[in-house]
Amino acid sequence: MLNYSNSQGRYRHTVIIILAVMWVLVYLQRTNIGVLLVDQRFLEEMGLVGQAARQGMLMTVFLLVYSLSNMLSVPVSNRLGPRRSLLLGVIVGALSMLAGGWVASFAALILVRVILGLAHGIYHPNISLLVKNWTPPQERGTANAVVGVGGCLALIVALPLYSWINWGVGWEYSFFIPGLLGLLALIPLGFSWISDQPGDNPYISTQEAQYIVSHNQDSDTPRDTPGDESAVDTQGIRELLKNTSFWLMAVIYTAFLCSWWGLMTWMPQYLVQARNFDISGMAGYISLAYGVAAAGILIGGRLADRVQPRSVIGIAALCGVALTTLGIALVPSPLGAVVFMTLAIGINEFVYPTVWAIMQTSLPSHLLVTGSGIVSGVGNLLSAISPFILGWLIQVSGSYTGGLLFLVTMAALGAVCCILLYRQEASAH
């Protein structure tokens, strides 16, 4: 878990765990659609029977709005600060889910997904800022990994949970239950268990708050001072957008997300149709892949705290993803394809904590929400079309190899950007 050496208390670890639990609750709200699309009563009542394109819109609309919200919500986040921004996101997201259980038309359901995307776009930039504010630089890799693993855990839980809800009590409750669960996140935010800065928190010891602040000040840029993250720095933003390293990180994160969405979207069908697994066997292997992803993100986080420069992890991981994804296509054994698929997904997760640890160390606090919003927004926006590109390549080539080679290319592009980032870091030192 988190690094306890040289600490003057452990409350910062509690904050990271709370953020991870919040991420599980948030992620569950966006994962009910996959199971709903095999619920006959839901499809009939929403007029979606035989309407594959409209079914796909339920996820596409969310991803597009979510991507834009990461960037467009930055002024609101800068004004409110991370804790109050997360409060806003929790309330709007939970209310949209509760409304989803009452909708009676496809148009109303699309509106629910739009509002949910707006709410969820608030989370990532503000969680990134809280990780920076609450953890010293040498702990941020693990802290990001602990928070990020919440998404993997939510995916592991989602399939059995929503299957039980839909066939046990009705599809409406796959909106009501995660909506109510999301409101639990109001407890740590409302009682200030989480605050914008350690010094603002009534539960942390003075010694630990001083320990965190002193270590963060040692690594801050000259323009970075506590509490100035709410300031609007137009000149700083212009400099950020001209920064080559910043855009390299955006491409690296996009490559990571392309592999994530591409593999997790198409691998179930690939295992059934190309490798002749039955549905139950396929589901078991997909659950295994999510479990390996959770392990991969934690291992990557620990490495990000131990390896300098951190871009080396990205180089090794994305090269590994390219090779293992190529192995999925080339290995003759169906079981071998599963092994390569699981390795590709697990190794890919090394990139997540690495990118965010680099961002949180290289950007000052007053630009971190903006930078995180742009990187997350651009990455999710571009990667949202990767499942479509894979599908098109599979269709025109008549095999899955073309789609897998696209993922190989994206991973290789990410690795090249990591090499360029490494060279910039090395020259800076």
- Domain count, please report it: 2
CATH architecture verdict of the largest domain = Up-down Bundle
Envelope shape: globular
- Could you report the average pLDDT, rounded to the nearest whole number? 86
Q: Please, how many helices?
A: 21
Proportion of residues in β-strands? under 5%
CATH topology of the largest domain: Growth Hormone, Chain: A
CATH superfamily of the largest domain: MFS general substrate transporter like domains
> Which structural class is indicated by helix and strand composition?
mainly alpha
Estimated helix fraction: over 70%
User: What order do the SSEs take from the amino end to the carboxyl end, as H and E?
Assistant: HHHHHHHHHHHHHHHHHHHHH
Low-confidence stretches: 1-6, 222-231
Distance between the termini: 30 Å
Largest sheet: none
CATH class of the largest domain: Mainly Alpha
Number of DSSP strands?
0
Query: How many whole angstroms does the radius of gyration measure?
Result: 21 Å
Structure, briefly:
The protein has 21 helices and no strands.
Task: Describe the 3D structure.
The chain is mainly α and 429 residues long. The chain folds into 2 domains: 9-219, Growth Hormone, Chain: A (Up-down Bundle), CATH 1.20.1250; 235-429, MFS general substrate transporter like domains (Growth Hormone, Chain: A), CATH 1.20.1250. It has helices at 11-30, 33-36, 40-45, 52-72, 74-80, 82-100, 106-120, 123-134, 140-168, 173-182, 186-190, 206-219, 234-241, 244-273, 279-306, 311-330, 334-348, 351-362, 365-383, 386-397, 401-428. Helix 5 (74-80) runs antiparallel to helix 19 and helix 16 (311-330) runs antiparallel to helix 18 (351-362). The model is unreliable at 1-6 and 222-231 (pLDDT under 50).
